[in-house]
Amino acid sequence: MTLAIDTQQLRKEYGRRAVVKNLDLQVGEGEVFGFLGPNGAGKSTTVKMLLGLVRPTSGRLKVLGGSPDDLAVRARLGFLPEQFRFQTWMTGDEFLRFHGQLAGLSAAELRTRIPAALKRVGLGGRGHEALGGYSKGMLQRAGLAGAILARPRLVFLDEPTSALDPIGRVEVREIIQDLRREGVTVFLNSHLLSEVEQVSDRVAFVKAGEVVRAGSMAELLAGALPVEVKVDRLTPELLSALERLGKLERRGEQQVSVTVSGEEVIPAIASAVHAAGAQLYALMPQRQDLEDLFLQLVGDSGDGGSAVPNGDLKQGAA
Ligand SMILES: Nc1ncnc2c1ncn2[C@@H]1O[C@H](COP(=O)(O)OP(=O)(O)OP(=O)(O)O)[C@@H](O)[C@H]1O
């Protein structure tokens, strides 16, 4: 796998405090990679080091096979910052022209790419308006247009949908999927875990400056699967049959939770119920999602007082 991002023992200290510690991160070319962690975990600092905006205290990093200090490498990076405070006196067109010129695009390229980029982010025909009159969601879209204007090979998107409504979020998800189809690597920082779950090929959880877990969605969410089983009566014979399939937790006269290794075991639960002559009322796998995993891995850290991600928790998950 060719790596778009490769860090080894990357570290950043502010004063005597290490905010990123010995970070080893490998992201393959063309991957959509979700970078998750509570407030203050060191995500933005990591992104800034990868962009060459913050100097690491120690360790090594490569982006697109080189250094972000190399202008040829930097020209192939795109960045949507979390705090998008743009030049409000400029129109959308002027803002993109400014960024495009900084990225070295020619006048001819700018003429075709600016309207195309605006259209792609849902701002077609709005380029003549001043950014000062844009809504927060429009500004975020304009920032995204700026990040992809120069056709980067690696794009960092820091909370790309924080200002968007649900329709806008779907649209940005589609743009990320298009970028993946074009072979662009996307490094995604987001608190919206369900969103990360839907678009990322792999994710890493970072806590207090260190990666605590990384892998594909399937790898991370595999393993123990609790299945709630409800029957007319739980006989000793049925309980011992279920015990052979997984760990049991009794819920009452008619219900038991069986934690099995994966969904391929579910049919065996139904067969055991049938063989014991019981009536099956319900068989409910309780799939773990990214949010459960987030709370489990990083639930007791962060410097914002709470590790709970912004507004994306299902009821009662904590
Ligand atoms: N320039 C700086 N000087 C001193 N400390 C800093 C500086 N930048 C960041 N920090 C500290 O480093 C820690 C990590 O910050 P960072 O912004 O990287 O976290 P984050 O994971 O991106 O958080 P959030 O999700 O809240 O954006 C925080 O405790 C922050 O206060």
From TrEMBL:
Keyword Transmembrane helix: no
Pfam families: ABC_tran (PF00005)
UniProt entry tagged with the keyword Membrane: no
InterPro entries listed in its UniProt record: AAA+_ATPase, ABC_transporter-like_ATP-bd, ABC_transporter-like_CS, P-loop_NTPase
ABC transporter domain residues: 5-233
Classification via SMART domains: AAA
Protein name: ABC transporter
Record-linked PANTHER family: ABC TRANSPORTER, ATP-BINDING PROTEIN (PTHR43335:SF4)
Organism: Deinococcus irradiatisoli
Family: Belongs to the ABC transporter superfamily.
GO molecular function list: ATP binding; ATP hydrolysis activity
Sorted UniProt keywords: ATP-binding, Nucleotide-binding, Transport
